[in-house]
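Quick one, T. Sequence first:
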Amino acid sequence: MSANALTVRGQELGEQLRVLRAESGFNLQSAARRIDMSPSQLSRLENGQRRAPAEVVTALLATYGVTGQRRRTALALARESDEHGWWQRDRPDFPERQRTLMSLESKAERIINYAGLLVPGLLQTSEYMRATLEETSMFSADAVEQRMATRMRRHAAVFGSRDCSLIALIDELVLHRRVATPGVLVRQLEQLVYWSTRDHISIRVLRNDRLHSGTTGPFQLIRQRCGHTVVFLEHLGSSLFVEDKQDVATYGEAVRKMLDLALPQQDSVHLIEDIARNIHSEAGNDDSRRSRTAHLAQEPS
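Structure tokens:
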């Protein structure tokens, strides 16, 4: 199957079938034998590289003893697996939506991420991540913990292997935006400097002196090792996976223009280091002023 024939839904279906097979105790050989298919064919199906006809999926689900909602979900994906693009508006559960993203990221050879108002999620420290979730007042305490756990699993999936390169495009304003305390932001900036030392991570800063094509909103461009490219757009209650060839090309052109405007890696890192030092210095001066004011307030008049 060519990269153009791959779909996000087809890969999601394949991943679900792989998990169901493992849970039922079948290996590739035994499961393939039960439905008169070769192990290599079943492997390609589970990797989303082979179309999964509804009758094959039905046979596999029967073999694995799958019933109820999980069966209905898999059969629905089988019916839609040829469709390009996927608006996951029927999945209110955040970890469930992120499961599709994590699967795509685990197969990626390159990820390009522009997060708009924040540091890209894959590069966020845990305290910065927690602060951004809590300060929006949009999520319950349980939802914050749920999102943090999911984000950390994404970290492990992407950074556990050097097979995937990451290009993070960061607006300069993000580097100044205070999150929680100055210390939280300083440590986040220091972590960006650390990430920049990794061979497979590139951090590029877009200066404030001009607008760029990313001002239309955050996005993530995911190119898989098989050549299939997907654009991921995340909203408060839904996720959108864009696969249309022309739409993907439009985001690719936006990335090229943003990279043309962005500072080179070394200059970006120097700017981040300067901003971190300035914030740290200002925070120290503020602490000194508060200490002096408190001392004066305690002195007798």
